[in-house]
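Lab manual, section 2.4: Encoding a predicted structure.

Procedure: take the sequence of the chain (136 residues), apply the prediction step described in section 2.3, and record the output as structure tokens. A sample record is shown.
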Amino acid sequence: MAKPGNPEPAIGGGNDISEGIMDIVRPALQTLDAQVKETRKSQIHLGENIQKLSEYLKEILDEKQMPFDLGDYVRRLDDSTKRIYNVQSRIQVMHEKMTHLQRQIARETFKQKQSKTDGVVTPTEQESKVAEGSEE
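Recorded output:
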């Protein structure tokens, strides 16, 4: 039995399990979130630098006739830029999904805490109590 001032543990331990899972997952999600943000920043920076280099090579190509073709290198840089932006958009979508999942877990944990601390009676429980009362 619990002491008078301490609430008894929840039956089934669902709240404790969800809190435990959140405590385990939260640091990993925060680390992943920070890494995704840093990756996005570095990809934007890399994309800007590739764009500058591509423009510079185009200027050189326009100004002088070289014994070699720089157009191939410019096309390769443009292809790399496209791939970087493609990866960036995929990372952003994954990050949004992870953030959404984290919010759902936090909401569910909060709802479980509220329902156990407030002693909220759900509508189905109310209906069964009303039915029991009408039978008497």
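Check your result against the sample. Residues 25-114 form one domain.
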